[in-house]
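Many introductory courses stop at the sequence. We go one step further.
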Amino acid sequence: MKKLPIVLAFALFAFISFAQTPQEKKQAKPCDECFALAMAVDELNSIRPGDDRVKVREIFVPSPLGGFRPASPERWAYKKCPHIKVDFEFDKDGNVKSASHPYLGTANGISD
């Protein structure tokens, strides 16, 4: 009977020690891909309404459209990753009127 409290104390200590390890493993650590995406989003968000096509072309290239699409909005692909797309609407002077949120699509644009 004298050993029971010692065994229980040891068991409790062991349980607490091992219970903390999975929580530490569950914490997400940023990977290289996450860092690259975060940088891409920052660069994509640098385009604002009123910017001209020259600024858009610094970051994007026109994306081929699959099927019939109206002229507006225009789909553009991020230069560093053609899977990241943004749809831009331009005014008659060629300035950005509006932009969609970035989204993922196929690189060739066939089934976007």
